[in-house]
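Q: Now give one record:
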Amino acid sequence: MSPPDGSILITETTNSVFVMVGNFDQFTNVTVVGAFGSRQNIPFLDDGQLPDQTPNDGTFSADLIMPKVPVGTVSNVTLRVIVSGEVPPPDPLPEPPPPPQIVSATNTVKYVVVPRPANDNFTNAFKIAPEGAVILATNNYASIEPGEPLHARVPTVAASVWWTWSPALNTNALIDLAGSSFDPVLAVYTGTSVTNLLPVAASTRDTVNNLKAHVNFDARAGVTYRIAIAGMDTNGVGDIRLRVAPGRLPDTNGPVTTIISPASESLFTTNAVAFAGTAKDPRLDDTGVSQVFLQVNTDPPIAVIGTTSWAGQLLLPPGTNTVPMPSS
């Protein structure tokens, strides 16, 4: 069956379910019926009409609507399918003809139904305090509403979630997504309807400074700004770190990384050398250190343990080596 047992499905969505009958050609008059929630005797058809793809190929299908699941909960639902078929009569047919022999088989699968984020829709946007905040959230299982704009003009944009923010004073405003687990799309608007929004600022990944999406704009006191965060496509989901910071600027400065040990120009009789050091941002309003790497000569960087205080090991080749310190 597809989706298979244990699949995660989203609340109030329509899902096509397919039942593959492996020995379909050994029977005649094959029927498939299902029971799902309060619905009984749901016909699964093999007639080539959507959602079925090809008639009479042994794959039967039906559309099922997942139940409503409140935010903060999950629900386990059960689909029970009964497949029945008639064994072909013997050839030649004896007299008197035997009664039809019906064979049935039952299969049961369980699905996990999950809610969408509470701020999936424009009208359910979360409010951010005028002084700004750092917010941890997710866009897992989020959707795109009918009439929702293509954020940052990305044609494949998907899985958006919404916030609103209104500053108390006229100010420069930084909104950035540093620390998010994926490359999100960020867009800021004004307006009262998802179908009638005026763009203020938008961003995808800042490739010049190697930063996640961020925008900086002049915000006016009392204006409500609508903040949308989405994925570049349907794979663009995960953990979001949203920072709304009035009066701040993007963190375009790389961390300052220092090797405490070993000392420069040290000599070693073994190639396995332990390193330790520190890393910090040069400005107080920067976003912090997310990862420190060790690198020997031009070899690929290796992630170390820790950030502001870190440790790691390199295998040094014979001769003189340089150890640059990339970090982010």
The radius of gyration is 29 Å. The longest strand covers residues 101-114. The chain has a mean pLDDT of 92. The chain is about 0% helix and 45% strand.
